[in-house]
Write a structure and sequence with these properties.
Radius of gyration: 21 Å
CATH topology of the largest domain: TIM Barrel
Keywords: Cytoplasm, Glycosyltransferase, Membrane, Metal-binding, Mitochondrion, Mitochondrion outer membrane, Transferase, tRNA processing, Zinc
InterPro entries: TGT, TGT-like_sf, tRNA_ribo_trans-like
Enzyme class: transferase
Number of strands: 16
Subunit structure: Heterodimer of a catalytic subunit QTRT1 and an accessory subunit QTRT2.
Number of domains: 2
Strand order of the largest sheet: 4-14-13-12-11-10-6-5
Strand content: 15-25%
Bound molecules: zinc ion
CATH architecture of the largest domain: Alpha-Beta Barrel
Pfam families: TGT (PF01702)
Number of helices: 15
Distance between the termini: 32 Å
Structural class: alpha/beta
Helix content: 40-55%
CATH superfamily of the largest domain: Queuine tRNA-ribosyltransferase-like
CATH class of the largest domain: Alpha Beta
Length: 388
Amino acid sequence: MSLKKTLSVASPLTLRIVAECPVTKARACELVLPHGAVNTPVFMPVGTQGTMKGITVDQLDALGCRICLGNTYHLGMRPGPDLIEKARGLHGFMNWKRNLLTDSGGFQMVSLVELSEVTEEGVKFKSPYDGKEILLSPEKSISIQNSLGSDIMMQLDDVVSSTVTGPRVEEAMHRSIRWLDRCIAANKNPDKQNLFAIIQGGLNAELRKACLDEMTRRDVPGFAIGGLSGGEEKDDFWRMVTLSTDHLPREKPRYLMGVGYAVDLVVCVALGCDMFDCVFPTRTARFGSALVPWGSLQVKQKQYAKDLQPIDPDCQCPTCKRHSRAYLHALFKSDTAAMHHITIHNISYQVSMTLLHFEFIVEIMYFKILPCLIIDFFFHNCVKQAKL
Ligand SMILES: [Zn+2]
């Protein structure tokens, strides 16, 4: 395939590396996007239809969130890009003044819509709303994301599950490269919106390396590591992450898609990833599961009915400052407000955890004080345990 070195347009982001861990690949950065600066490592909560389920934009802002996700598939279907464009993009529609990242819509389509078909043209599917056949092409995906006005747009990629093997993985990898070129060409706002490429190649090191070689020759503002976190063995997952970060350019942000469990975050920060997203913290909150440093706490369980402690006595979030486990337990039986309170706690937990990572990496680099060396040792051991 011929190399299309795209014309260099100054990308609307800058990445300043504040500190790098001397032992692992962990790094603390300041990522400046059109709607303000974001410290990385960062966890990005996932909104769906322009709303964060169970939390308002003001609450999200107050928790320190500086970037969140919007789903192109849902927003593109309803209310549709025209209305959102009229409302001054997704920022105006949601009244969210911080940064937004939108996905391509492809993943939702393949995972949510049973009758979808991938061809060279794009992803064909039947609308779940009116049954009409729709084609999501790379151009269409970028056109919707241009209307949404997100700070970071994702290329449309050919998604296959990480447990799939054989020629389909290779086909999807090559197609994702071709679709990246079509997305780059279709972007009407390269000076305002950052387009990220998505590295594919399944669990095959050769394919992933080939994808890295090709995609990093394109002048895109950032890269995502895709096609992982889909039920593969942890060893395979970590190997593919570290292979990717080994070959991604140091001066550009690296986004590991669909990863949000605490242990995965720690290891993947040590492996050099900067950005993460996952529906898990908000989805699990709606089932009454609160994230805590020792795992999770199921608020609905009988044992909390008379427990007057907060979810986590050390947590500084509004839920833990105001409400007890017993209150949330009682509320869960009668009111959806319990889900909102737990969602706030879970997002706060994730945002604070990545902020701590940022601080640790800076301290490891500059002060090398004892607690930091312990954390450094922890990062190092995580990497060793992953047998890398
Ligand atoms: Zn809390």
